[in-house]
Amino acid sequence: MTSSQQQIQELLTEMDALFTDFYRWLAGQYDPVSGGFYYAQSSFEIDNFIPDIESTAQAFNILARSGLSDRLPEPMKQDLSAFFQKKQDPVTGYFLDTDENMRKDEVMVMRGLGYSTGALRRLGSAPLYPLPHEAQARPDYLRTPDTYVSWLKNVDLRNSWRGCDFMGTPNHHIARMEEAERKLFIAAGEAYFASIQDAETGLWGEGNRYIRISGTFKLSAFYTRFGLPLPNVDRIYHTILQCLREDEARDMCWIRNPIDLLGTFGHVLTIPQEELAEIIQITIGNMRKLLRADGGFSREIHQSPPAPNVAQVKEGEFYPYMPIPVPIGKGRIEGDMNAGTQALLIREFCHRLAGVDHQPLNPLTETFMQAIQAHY
Question: Quick check: pTM over 0.90?
Answer without folding.
Answer: yes
